[in-house]
């Protein structure tokens, strides 16, 4: 990306002043190398976001920013409904509430290494993965509605999980304001047999070892120590979320002219928050969030079942669950004034700092855990939100390494079977239904996650706690 028009505020903070129809500046949080490595479209998409009605403060791009649909992935934008602010289906994305949850196990690396292959086979057999994958759960219309209203709470009530899990989930496991009546029959049909499934693409379940602890005090409060084993689950709202995004993007694009919105890009389709279509989308999107929370909760239950058979002394309490494709109503201080805003995070993770009222009591002192996924051949990270980050980008941080290469290009460069063999030589066991999917998700197709995390840490968005390395990876 050409950065000549940007003003460098600090090593990891750059700004693009408003020009043309931009209402606010664009702020990039990244070091020079990450910034120059971003596609030129990232800057254009961030400029487009900065042009939307009712946007507050700035259009933000996280260190893992890359080109997406409408909004850049790694994009954050907050809108004020009282100032004509909008909600954008493209600003949330097709995989509504895609997110990561991390489970502790109470195990050490030495406990898992001898039975790693057996554990990989058992997880792969029990947890459905891949394009169009279906599970053993079938939801009729009544249960579908209950799930869309209740999220992870619904799942726990049905026996998939523990009540104490809910305290460690964003929104305490249930997104308020969900309106299942705005979920179409087609979206419901797509989800009817997909609960408790990983899906495809960059989604995964990984057994990981804590390779390095960088903040021992915070790690201790989170019950994390070097050489501990954890499980990370990355997935979202599956076919239902995709269908909701598809339907409302089309409707918002058609309705934009009626609302006097000039779209710089049709993929940035949006509607006023106070409009009829805007309100319907919010209700449907919140139901999609509940679908994702319920899905990850069921997968957690299935994972616990597998561990109870293979490693019976494992405990698997939930460390935290946080989403990175949402639009949330939040209170934020802007220029010394508290404002009620609708914060879009597209491929960006909520990262609330210490003392935030939405955090459970046990985490209030240290801040919200921030779970950043890498690739199946590199590493993932555990961070915590900072007080400083609340004013930098509405309490947001990066969500992963960020792609540096398209899936099409990755397929041309790597073969899935060879990748799996190479990773096995490095002690990483991969199980997948699709060799093409493995090639698309090759470690080399992603940016250096350590550089991304270092940049987020230096910028003050979140603080590094621990580095996690994959031992077993289940992919679609």
Q: How would you describe the overall organization of this protein?
A:
This protein is α+β, with helices and mostly antiparallel strands. It is 34% helix and 26% strand. The protein contains 16 helices and 19 strands. The protein has helices at residues 32-37, 40-50, 89-92, 109-112, 116-126, 141-157, 185-191, 216-221, 238-255, 276-310, 361-364, 389-392, 407-413, 416-425, 435-440, 449-459, and strands spanning 7-10, 13-16, 26-28, 55-66, 73-79, 86-88, 99-108, 204-213, 228-235, 270-272, 318-323, 325-334, 337-346, 348-350, 369-372, 380-385, 396-398, 429-432, 462-475. Strands 7, 8, 9, 11, 15, 16, 18 and 19 form an eight-stranded mixed beta sheet that branches. The protein has a seven-stranded mixed beta sheet with strand order 1-2-3-4-5-13-12, with helices on both faces. The longest helix has 35 residues, at 276-310. It is globular. The two termini are 32 Å apart. The model has no long low-confidence stretch (mean pLDDT 96).
